[in-house]
Amino acid sequence: MCLNCGCNQPNERHGNDANITADDVRRAGEANGQDLATSAANMRSALGALAADATTGGSATARDTAARAPSVASTTRAPR
């Protein structure tokens, strides 16, 4: 779907290139040797950590927050 609006249409941008689609996630994963499911799991983990940080008023950077979040990427990422 336009993953950020919740419309349940996986590849609908609603005329706005800033909206994130399933194809975007798939392409990003392929660039790192990951399938869509792995990329989505990594994103869920990182976004969950970012959301938790935002609700507690933390000031961690996205990189710091993602580093704290569990990731499956370390076992599935292709060498760069």
List keywords for this structure.
single chain, 80 residues, mainly alpha, 2 domains, 0% strand, globular, disordered C terminus
Walk me through the structure.
- With 80 residues, the protein is an all-alpha fold.
- It has two domains: 1-31, no CATH class; 37-76, no CATH class.
- Helices cover 51% and strands 0% of the residues.
- The chain is built from four helices and no strands.
- The protein has helices spanning 22-31, 36-55, 62-68, 73-76.
- Helix 1 packs across helix 2 and helix 2 (36-55) packs across helix 3.
- The longest helix is centred in the middle third of the chain and has 20 residues, at 36-55.
- It is globular and about 30 Å long.
- The termini are far apart.
- The model is unreliable at 73-80 (pLDDT under 50).
How widely separated are the two ends?
29 Å
- The fraction of residues in strands falls at under 5%
Instruction: Find the structural class using helix and strand composition.
Output: mainly alpha
How is the biggest beta sheet arranged? none
Uncertain segments: 73-80
Q: What is the helix content?
A: 40-55%
Count of DSSP helices? 4
Mean pLDDT: 79
Q: Using the alpha-carbon principal axes, give the shape.
A: globular
Number of domains as seen in the coordinates: 2
Radius of gyration: 14 Å
- In N-to-C order, the SSE pattern is HHHH
Strand tally? 0
Brief overview:
This protein is mainly alpha-helical and 80 residues long. 51% of the residues lie in helices and 0% in strands.
